[in-house]
Design a protein that fits this description.
Two copies of one chain form a homodimer. Chain A is an alpha/beta fold. Chain A contains 24 helices and seven strands. Strand 7 of chain A pairs antiparallel with strand 7 of chain B.
Chain lengths: 687, 687
Amino acid sequence: MHTQSPHEQSRRRALDEDTRTTKRWIIGEPLPSDKLEGQLLSKRLALPVFASDALSSVAYAPQELLMILLVGGLSFLTFAPWVAAAVVFLLIVVVVSFRQLVRAYPSGGGDYEVAHRNLGRRAGVVVASALLVDYVLTVAVSVASGVDNILSAVPELGPYRVEHAVGCVAALAAINLRGVRESSKAFAAPTYLFVASIGIMVAVGLIRTLAGDPPIAESAQYGVQAESLTQAGIVLLILRSFASGCSALTGVEAISNGIPAFKKPKVRNAQQTLVWMGAIAIALFVGLIAVALVSGVHYAEDACHLVGVATCESATQRSLIAQIASATFGNNSVLFYVVQATTAAVLLLAANTAFNGFPMLGAILARDSYAPKALNTRGDRLVYSNGMLVHSLSAIVLLVVFQARLTSLIQLYIIGVFVSFSLGQIGMVVHWLRALRKLRSRQSVRRVILGRLAINGLGAAMTASVLVVVTVTKFTHGAWIVFAIMPVLSLGMLAIHRYYGSVQRETRYGTVEAAAEEVASQPVGDHAIVLMGILQRPTVKALDYAIAADHASLEAVHVSIDAESTAALQTAWVDAGLSTPLRILPSPYRDVVTPLLRYLVTRRHEHPDEIVTVYLPQYIVGRWWENLLHNHRANRLRQKLLLVEGVSITLVPWLLESSSRLYRRAPRPLPGHERAGIPLRPGRKKS
Amino acid sequence: MHTQSPHEQSRRRALDEDTRTTKRWIIGEPLPSDKLEGQLLSKRLALPVFASDALSSVAYAPQELLMILLVGGLSFLTFAPWVAAAVVFLLIVVVVSFRQLVRAYPSGGGDYEVAHRNLGRRAGVVVASALLVDYVLTVAVSVASGVDNILSAVPELGPYRVEHAVGCVAALAAINLRGVRESSKAFAAPTYLFVASIGIMVAVGLIRTLAGDPPIAESAQYGVQAESLTQAGIVLLILRSFASGCSALTGVEAISNGIPAFKKPKVRNAQQTLVWMGAIAIALFVGLIAVALVSGVHYAEDACHLVGVATCESATQRSLIAQIASATFGNNSVLFYVVQATTAAVLLLAANTAFNGFPMLGAILARDSYAPKALNTRGDRLVYSNGMLVHSLSAIVLLVVFQARLTSLIQLYIIGVFVSFSLGQIGMVVHWLRALRKLRSRQSVRRVILGRLAINGLGAAMTASVLVVVTVTKFTHGAWIVFAIMPVLSLGMLAIHRYYGSVQRETRYGTVEAAAEEVASQPVGDHAIVLMGILQRPTVKALDYAIAADHASLEAVHVSIDAESTAALQTAWVDAGLSTPLRILPSPYRDVVTPLLRYLVTRRHEHPDEIVTVYLPQYIVGRWWENLLHNHRANRLRQKLLLVEGVSITLVPWLLESSSRLYRRAPRPLPGHERAGIPLRPGRKKS
């Protein structure tokens, strides 16, 4: 065997080549494993990756806070510092609470894991559905706000708000479905630029104010039509303003879901990043509120509530950031555009974060049997494509239904975040209480744990109260939708869990012996049937495979739909000298399925001990629309045959030439050739 | 073997029972073959079955004819008798022409066959697309007119016109998808009742007129706002009126498509039925026009064109038939309701006819490779369900787009009919010319053929001119839509034909010897792989089947996604004492597909002469939503594996308990049991 014939050599070479091409197709551009694992992130890179969501929320939180206060009239702006202070205090409490959660649950499960472990699976499912809703809303709100800021810089695009928003989501979906992975560095620049530009803007504004030349916003000249409010109405308005300001807290939980991505020491680095993120968010939030108040930004729910705007129906108000940037740096100055661009960029990055979060949570839920297993299947590009599709379609529906109006969407937002915050913090309280019970004796440890319990207790109390406030103030403004969807999602997840449980009980063995008992220790009779329409390449390939598999008995079966073609097949069968017996089944109804099923049932009745394998050729096509033109009868047949006891189906693929689009391959060998060692189909492609 | 053991006996009995249950499931309620073939129809039954379409068109043709004339003012009604006479003359010519077509092409192919054979496949495809469009429009127009007549009797339903129309189509679709077959008798009563009631109404109206007490329609009091027209405008209006009146001709072709359903002598009976149908249609058409003119029905395109109607925006005009019936028999009299009910019934029957015609033509086109083969696949109830779905969805789209307005829909109608009439008649002319060329010598026969040529020539000339008139007068009123759709359909059909042709060339053998050459004459090495996730019933069943099939070599392959479950499987494998080797493939990416593909390619490289069969368990479920929860990974895997050269897939079904919903079955035997002769799963269902 040392001296190979030239034929042998060329055959080996062709096979080598074939193997290599197939391998390249399978693997695609090689993705080394660290790409999937993700490079571990230094704090410098982790901050922008995980904080873009939290930081970007200062792009809309101050604006919404002030806007609600303005409903009561200009005098209500005096409440603004106090409301902002309340938001900042809440933010501090939540950050400190999360510092503890990060240490206690460093696996990256976040609130879902905490609630699931400490409060039971129902609470876990509620947290999961709250988070899913909020991931969708993060995309909708961030994109709406990003589009707002783009339109503030380029007002000509105004009429196409919804189209732009949907386009952004579609673009993000496309990018993420392709599986972009080197995102950490792409995140860093815009996030730091955003922080820097907003920081500089705030600093310049405040310095100019101290120097006696405060910036004046374009809307400072307008008065406001105040609603006349009762005492209770005033309190409610201030609470609403606070609730809208709380949108600054969204995204704080991101780090708790990403601990495994940090460099070691993971927990410590995550905690420090969390504190940094909190500090920056507070600085930007407070600074923007201060400059907005100084420069007199009057941003109303509806431009027509402003007194002094001439054509309020057609006029669009520019976003709060745009107004401040324009007042501080001058309208249409370079720095104005820088601020708008970085704001839009960081908002889109925040939306992008949710594009990773939703499918990841979906996969975890699928792994835990709370969601369809399909969500835990990675697509060709190693991303959870099914989850991404569900996610982006939901976001698009929201944007279309609410016409990409930030003020409407924000009413639905943060309910989910605060549900998950509250349950997470309550879970932490339970966690510490359990720890206390275990450690009765050691006083020093007890004291530490009691301290932590106090912090999470405060966090739980505050987030729960805020949840109540947010619910009360937003319910009639649209938040009821979230309260309608969350139970449906939760109950759906529990139902799916029950269903998978029942399937598992149906298919599992009690003992290993039970399994062993059922496996035949030696081969038993088996019969193969090749379904034969006309004598053509795909059917002959199926016949060839059936012969090669060497079944105990083999026959070709033809369902006779018209006498003419049956006779033609019989003649061809004899002419070709095929030794496999050909059985003709009459079909008075011109139907292939029923006669075949009848024959199989009869045969199973006569030979009850054997199994039957039916060979079906299957066309493989390369263009989506070809699926409309092929395989319908074969699919119907397959579904029907799989219902017959003791029958299995063998699909023998026939790759149509168009299937080469699926991967660039050398000309395919013919059925017989590929085993006979003739590498290429003669006279095709290779001339 | 004569004395069977009790065990053996019970096993046989169980198998008998199983076979019987399965058979009942396969066959359903038995449909004897004459049901599919259709009982052959006597003339008495054939007339209502085939004529409901043609006769029902007198329910709207007179109304639309008069309505268009009224645009010119009341004085234009004097043209009505002449326009009606032109329509009647055309109807006679068409009926006589079709008498000849029926004799020459008795196979039921109708215009499609005539055009295809005599004018080439392009003409055939054009006729086919024209007919498809018209089948859809028949449903839309008939349902719209039927709903009009229902609303004329029950005006309270007025606001829900579109909903009623869509509901009717959906109901017809549901009935036809269930495969109602005994329709011929169901057709007879309403059709004959319709003919009788309209006939009596016309007779009573005319007799009352002769007796000096003519019926007076409710709209006779209203004047009409006349448009001022130029000479050319007048001619165009009269032509438009004629074109609308020509809708009386629709459905005449139905008999030519149904000749095989007639009792013998088929051709003669079909011809006589055709003549009867023509005679009745003419009588009703002329009678209705006459009574409408006598009683002064003024039906305008828009109620606001009538002078004297108080609240024209909200008022709905009652249909012409309703107005005549009310004037003749008295409003809300029993006979009035009888007329309205039979009219609505016959219109729905006409729509029902199209529900048979469209899928049948679709199947013929699919058989001739002009449409997706799926249209030639009968569903569970032996009807062409795919075609029916396409048909009813198209009709629903039309009704919704045009808000079920008869006057708008009728603008699109009859273009298709006249395209097919014209091409059919031209085809007949070619047919006779060819016949003449063949029969040079025999003078007597020549003369007969020349006579027939003349008739079809006249038919061709007239239908072609009417097509031009119809096109010119309706084009801007909506008919352009038909002219946009027909070429798209025709080109689509030709493209599909080309595509199927190329696939056929790709898969066929030049000679029988070529086929014989490629079939291995004796078994060659084959290798089987059972994909093993965890040791549970479905995977064990697959393993069991693979062992039974006795492949040359067999191994179980496990893709290791996490170390824990892999170790568990290995332990269970050893504990169960399974002799099949278990191969573990590492999967760093937590992905099942890629490692398996790599392994297969490598193996194919090392053993190039063998084929590989991969066993995959497949869940069979009984409820549609369960498909969302199962088989996703298996399907993805199947698609990927089928692309690897030399690999075939064997699907081993696992029927979940819910699959018993698919057919009532006895408790299923377990994998090992069904071949070991243990009939029932112990301890389940059967306690």
